[in-house]
Amino acid sequence: MRISTGIEGLDAMLNGGLPGGRIVLVSGSTGTGKTTLGMQFIYNGIKQFGEPGVYMTFEQDKDRIREDMSTLGMNLNELGDRFRLVGGPIATVYKYKKKTKAEVEDIISEVEEIVSEIGAKRVVLDPINLFLMLFDGDDERRMALATLAEHLTALGCTSLLTCEVREQTMDISRYGFEEFVVDGVIALYNIKQGQSFLQGITVRKMRGVKHHREIRPYEITNRGIVVYSTQPWLPEDEE
Ligand SMILES: Nc1ncnc2c1ncn2[C@@H]1O[C@H](COP(=O)(O)OP(=O)(O)O)[C@@H](O)[C@H]1O
Ligand SMILES: [Mg+2]
Q1: What is the pLDDT of residues 51-92, one digit of tens each?
Q2: Do the strands 53-57 and 83-87 form a parallel or antiparallel pair, or are they unpaired?
Q3: What is the 33 CA–ligand 2 centroid distance (Å)?
Q4: Domain at 2-237, CATH from 3.40.50.80, 1.10.150.120, 3.40.50.300, 3.30.930.10
Q5: From the CA of 218, which ligand is nearest?
Q6: For the chain, which has fewer Cβ within 10 Å, the N-terminal or C-terminal residue?
Q7: If pLDDT is split at 50, 70 and 90, which confidence band does 238 have?
């Protein structure tokens, strides 16, 4: 079963959409559009497919997200009770740590509760590196992500985890192991070329899907992310 992102060019690169019930990492440096892409996945899911969705932020103020998304063609206020926006800045997240000694179960059970409350089919956690920051050392982090992934899979939701990576690199994760725990990776690149930055998107991995492998250009517009799935990314790619 394929889950359409509702982003036409991206669905084309995925030959239809994301694999249903799987967990996909969306990685990119700051400003590449991870939050926008994640919200389009939820917004389109509700508007076009009637699939309820949960968006959990670890980073931004919820009202600010609503404001920002309204400039990107998404009025979150019209989604009604098929939509939940939960979480808040990292300060809020740190409360979990104080209360629970970094027990991953607390955040997971909050997600599980909301998912079952609204019958969510789509989940976004944004950004997952801030969640992982709550844990000490790579072993604990990897264990936390594996536990989270296990629970998300058990819920039967299709989930996107965004991941902020370093600037001007082709890195696809922060800690270097996230890509192994998930079922798929979509990478957003923002690479300096002469006087400008070129934005490109690629599907690096997607279990069970015969996907495209090229890097394709994309833009963030007042209607969200638009992917040009048949155009070359860099000028020198042109024939
Ligand atoms: N209405 C808009 N039209 C075009 N580009 C926009 C608009 N709103 C935001 N952007 C661009 O999107 C970027 C933010 O995208 P965001 O999804 O928050 O990125 P990330 O989550 O990867 O940091 C902004 O830095 C800006 O460049
Ligand atoms: Mg973001």
Answers
A1: 999 999 999 999 999 999 999 999 999 999 999 999 888 766
A2: parallel
A3: 7
A4: 3.40.50.300
A5: 1
A6: C
A7: low
Report d(CA 34, CA 18) in Å as an integer: 16
Q: Which residues have a beta carbon within 5 Å of ligand 2, which is an ion?
A: 34-35
Residue 132 corresponds to which tokens in the numbers above?
């992982």
The two beta strands, 216-221 and 196-206, are antiparallel
- The pick from 220, 223, 225, 226 for probing ligand 1's pocket by mutation, whose C-beta has the most ligand atoms within 8 angstroms, reads 220
pTM value surpassing 0.85: yes
Cβ neighbours of 197 (radius 10 Å):
13
Phi–psi pair at 193, nearest 5 degrees: -130, 105
